[in-house]
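Appendix B. One record, verbatim.
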Amino acid sequence: MSLRSMTGYAQVKGELISQPEGSASPNATELSATQGNGRVAFALSLKSVNHRFLDLHFRLPSGSDSIEMQLRRLLKEKIARGHVEVTLNLERGGGETLALNRPLVSAYIAAFRAAAREFTVPAEPDLNVILRIPGALDSAGNTVDGALEPAVMATVGEALDRLNQMREQEGRSIERELRERMAHLREAASVVQNHRRAMLQSYTERLQARLHELLGASPDRERVLQEAALLVDRSDIQEEIVRLENHVQHFLGLLDAQGEVGKKLDFLLQEMNREANTLLSKTSGLAGEALRITEAGLSMKAEIEKSREQVQNLE
């Protein structure tokens, strides 16, 4: 699987034609828009952004619990990380038959009048309010509701393909930038390695000057060399350079392997940042030619930070 960004968007659309069940005419108490065929169009949208884990959010019409469960299962199989918003919008045509949910409306009116009698409030239920109750009007007399679930699930595969195509396209762009950042990081490490000898010489000169100041005009040369060796050993940056190079190699290997490597890459960049910080702490206060090591170390940190901004968008 190619590297994928966690950012993407896809939408698919479909349409159903509903047929009234049976040939009998509607009951006199039913509210019908028409007696003909009804058209139901739907749009399924998938939108994803970066997130530490897989975070699914659904915006579906009421009564879509079964669709949500199937979508949730499928998305978990196809997507590893990201905040994913799933939206299903329905648009019913003018020919859609609407029926009155008589049990629900009857229960509401009975409860309303019982409350009015109990509290002696002279009031009658408002039909406009009743019809806005969720479920008061439905299309239970049409076959569209039963056909909606398979129709929607038939389009999910196409929506996921489009979403992942966009995520993979963005992932390729991120990969190119990360490889460039690693090349710059290696260049900075090479600069540090080339000036390492100058840094060690600078440490020796600083120590000799300090001992000369403390011990007089003729310090013990052997003592100076011993102290210089101890200081240089504690301040040598060779280990940091080697570890940094190993981390870069591992990072590039993960890019070559592709797949879901976002978390691993982020961890490696944290380790690189730790090595760069140690390198800078060991070379603080240097002057002359060795000052270029500090400049290269700051360049390393800048490249690492820019890489982390990109890696945090990878799946």
